[in-house]
Amino acid sequence: MNWVLVAALAVAGLLVGWCLRAVVAPLAVSAEHPLRTDCPGCGRRIVPEAGRPAPGQSHVASVAGHPRWLAWFSVGRCAACRARIGPPPLALEIPAAVLFGALAARVHPGSVLAAACWLAACSVALGYIDVAVQRLPDLLTAPAYVGTAGLLLFAAASGGHWSYLLRAFLGGLALAVAYLLLVLASRSAIGLGDAKLAASLGTMLAWLGWPTLLVGTFVSFLLAAVYGLALLVARRVTLKQRIPFGPFMIAGTFLALLAGAAN
Question: Do the Cβ atoms of 128 and 121 come closer than 8 Å?
Answer without folding.
Answer: no
